[in-house]
Write a structure and sequence with these properties.
Layout lengths: L2 E7 L3 H12 L4 E4 L8 H4 L3 E2 L9 H18 L3 E2 L3 E5 L2 H14 L5 E3 L1 H8 L8 E5 L3 E3 L1 H14 L3 E3 L4 E5 L2 E4 L2 E10 L5 H4 L1 H6 L3 E10 L10 E2 L2 H6 L1 H4 L4 H11 L1 H5 L5 E5 L2 E5 L3 E3 L8 H15 L6 E11 L5 E7 L2 E6 L4 H22 L21
Parallel strand pairs: 1-2, 1-12, 2-9, 12-20
Antiparallel strand pairs: 3-8, 4-8, 5-7, 6-7, 10-11, 11-12, 13-16, 13-17, 13-18, 14-15, 15-16, 19-20
This protein binds flavin-adenine dinucleotide.
Amino acid sequence: MSKTDLIIVGSGILGLATAFRAHQQGRTVHVIDRSSRPVGSSIQNFGHACFTGQADEIQDLAMTSRAGWREAAAATGIWAAETGSIVPAMTEPELTVLQQFADHRGAAQATMLSAEEVATSVGNPNLGAIGGAHLPLDMRVDPREAVPAIADWLADQGVDFTWNTTVTEVADGTASTNRGDFHGEQVIVCPGYQLSSLFPDIAEAHGVRICTLVMSLIERPQRIPSGFAMLTGTSLARYDGFAAMPGASALREDLARREPDLVDVIANLMVTDIPGGLLIGDSHAYTLSPEPFIDERVGDLLLDRATSILGIDEPVVRQRWLGQYADSTDTNFILERPDERTTVAVVTSGIGMTLSFGIADRILGEEAAAARTRPAPHSPPLTPTADEVVMSDR
Ligand SMILES: Cc1cc2nc3c(=O)[nH]c(=O)nc-3n(C[C@H](O)[C@H](O)[C@H](O)COP(=O)(O)OP(=O)(O)OC[C@H]3O[C@@H](n4cnc5c(N)ncnc54)[C@H](O)[C@@H]3O)c2cc1C
């Protein structure tokens, strides 16, 4: 069967970002996916590249990823908005955390906005915020466009894609599938939340489970600006960059008092726009085998809170879905080499769109370093450094 420099298992954003970088390096690449097109976490999300909210310790990784997204957008022609994120402060604790964050990171990363400016930014003159912030470095893509378009572009450039083919085992340069074996110098496995079907021991060692998130798509009123992305107080409590601020505990206590329902569903209330409308979410539930059912109350709760900030009285819901991503109890990404020709890479937190291109560089860098030093067959895991093991979007 066919032989190539690099086999990549998984056509989600992590596999595709790695394919993009490897192709740039002049390597022959072959992507294998069990689906007939990308349908995993990478098309189910907000398309929000939240570089700014990541912890200080992974800012280098986040900025490498930002550069990768810009390069990929320029090469492939996908829509990528550099409009940043808006964070309205509806309460004093939210304003305090934003001010502390802006003082900590500086104006290049966070600019404070007046109540009027934030109302204009979200297109709702009656917002009632007391201030807010603009995070100019955050980016947006349309996940439903970006991931298939990157795959198409790579295919046009000569990257091989084998769709509708399930990989059943990977070892020593061979990817065994339900259609036979494929051989490569190296195999990089990016299966997302399906990690346990291929490497159950790695999944178990990191407590990998599936996080499910209730999402909606509603019609976008014209007054809401295109490229719009909004985080809220629940996001400030959740993303490590904000949550490291001294005011974060008071913010959490305030949220628990004012918004117990949002806290109960572990909400990260966010809104982003795509050409099809406004994406609204999300809640978080963690388990090994998720319920397939969408709890209408959770969808309605998120819709109600988001549309009240946006001043939309009668939202027209076009779609609802239950997104899924890989989560771990102990790390936000797994990067391991079970043998000297196999790398396993999974983002185990809700930040895979954000970090994809940074992690792709890391995967290829580690793989090149390993090839130079020819490690023993059972080399130690290349997991993130202690500084990087931060839980940015649990
Ligand atoms: C609702 C929601 C909101 C999110 N919001 C954000 C956000 O705002 N910002 C952010 O940065 N991240 C966000 N995320 C997280 C982000 O979407 C994921 O971290 C990221 O998409 C993971 O990419 P991936 O390539 O690892 O996985 P996936 O996109 O799931 O791709 C994995 C691929 O591997 C294939 N595969 C698996 N097993 C096999 C096998 N045995 N053989 C062949 N193929 C296989 C699958 O078919 C799939 O195509 C969100 C996720 C969800 C669900």
